[in-house]
Write a structure and sequence with these properties.
This protein is of the alpha/beta class. It has a 4-stranded parallel sheet. It has a two-stranded antiparallel ribbon with strand order 1-4. It is globular. Excises uracil residues from the DNA which can arise as a result of misincorporation of dUMP residues by DNA polymerase or due to deamination of cytosine. It comes from Capnocytophaga haemolytica.
Length: 221
Amino acid sequence: MNVKIDESWLAVLGSEFEQPYFKELTDFVRAEYAAHQCYPKGREIFAAFDHCKFSEVKVVIIGQDPYHGQGQANGLCFSVKDGIAHPPSLINIFREIEQDLGTPYPISGNLERWAAQGVLLLNATLTVRAGEAGSHQGKGWERFTDAVIKAVSTQGEHVVFMLWGGYAKNKAKLIDSSKHCILTTGHPSPLSANRGYWFGNKHFSKANAYLKSVGKEAVVW
């Protein structure tokens, strides 16, 4: 795995790539991609960073690991490539936006359009084996992405962190709540949403209201 990441992030995360754990992680990922079908494609592993420069981050959404179905993952959490059917969690995200902001349900599930506006779509684990959810967890990715969250918290100003579900909520301890906006709610998966833990959270209008209040442009969700 060659680490090809946007230069704005290299300046912030460069030391992570020199750590022993990252060498072990790199060896593991290379072996997995050589022996198994894995997602996303190698060149898309760091896509979340390539589509959203460090200095432009104004919202962070945290997922757990990439979609493990064929052709789905594109390196941004909850996002799928153009023309791919929307997974259940993404459907519920779009439905909440529809209710919250009154905007029509979109055709494309590709969230690169959000990333281009400063939304960092960060999975805690950046790779996965096909058909095996969570198969690359506990190998070092979480240490790396925790460092990403800490860097945004420490060096960023007035960022909105959207923490959906128990796993993401546990990341709140990495964030300085005195200078950032932390929004928490249930996970958009059907299991959580159908129990009443997702719909009506109004995270998208709340995020935009906060961004406007600190002089930043709202996101076109």
